[in-house]
Design a protein that fits this description.
The protein has a single domain, classed as Rossmann fold. The radius of gyration is 18 Å and the shape is globular. The termini are far apart. It is 43% helix and 15% strand.
Length: 253
């Protein structure tokens, strides 16, 4: 990232209190941005070096509308980073209707509803960049079926914004991380302490990505350096979606 390349720009980050969210806040802050941090609870944002803190639940439609109105009233962001997301239904066997509704609503419907309200101001201004934190689950199946379907929808929505609003100076892209070592993995590692080693074997780089690496990709797509890039879904996945090294080793080797 260039020094102070986001100086004078307002950057909104959802899910700012999580592992990747904190890496995003740190990076954009170092770039000189004015930061609007959004999350479900104020406590998760209290210690963060940000300019505005907005709390709301993406599952609460009225709260989404109010949060968007408050944000716009204080000044339409130059950059929106839609990072908030969540999943627990890890396989088809664990998927029921309630979980389908909750995960689609949080990871897709809520994100689109919130973004649409902010895009109105970007269109009126004639500029803006939106980056969605999607997932490799949107590109291939690695479990979490409802979450994967939602993230595939996010990629499609990013393309829709790119195509329909490009004439208004708005760019929209998605970053598709593979596994990131954040607290979101804690419940799996508590179940099986050998999971980190098993994960490494699946990735061509023999490791999973760091939150800072994903944040760098987000910052690049949000920056003027990516001024000619819109409508893309960029994997940041240590090679996971490129192919299967275990298949080569175990079957062909």
């Amino acid at each position: 990232m260039k020094e102070r390349e986001f100086a004078g720009q307002k950057v909104l980050i959802t899910g700012a209190g999580g592992g990747l969210g904190r890496a995003l806040v740190t990076l954009f802050k170092a770039g000189g941005a004015s930061l609007v941090a959004c999350d479900q609870s104020y406590d998760s944002l209290a210690d963060m070096p940000v300019d505005e803190r907005i709390t709301f639940d993406l599952l609460d439609r009225a709260a989404v509308v109010k949060a968007a109105a408050d944000i716009v009233a204080a000044g339409v962001p130059d950059i929106i980073v839609n990072n908030a997301g969540w999943t627990r239904a890890e396989s088809m066997a664990s998927l029921d209707t309630e979980k389908v509704v909750a995960e689609i609503d949080l990871n897709l419907t809520g994100v689109i509803a919130f973004t649409n309200l902010l895009l109105e101001g970007m269109v009126e201004r004639g500029s803006g960049a939106v980056v969605f934190v999607s997932s490799v689950n949107a590109l291939s199946h690695f479990g979490n079926p409802a979450y994967a379907a939602a993230k595939a929808g996010i990629n499609a929505y990013a393309r829709a914004v790119a195509v329909e609003y490009g004439r208004f100076g708005i760019r929209a892209n998605a970053v598709c991380p593979g596994s990131i070592r954040t607290p979101a993995w804690d419940h799996r590692i508590q179940r099986d302490a050998g999971i980190p080693g098993k994960l490494q074997r699946l990735y061509p780089l023999q490791r999973i990505v760091e939150a800072t690496e994903v944040a760098e990709a987000v910052a690049f797509l949000a920056s003027a350096r990516a001024s000619g890039i819109t409508g893309v879904a960029l994997p940041v996945d240590a090679g996971l979606t490129a192919g299967s090294r275990p298949f080569i080793d175990d079957i062909l080797g």
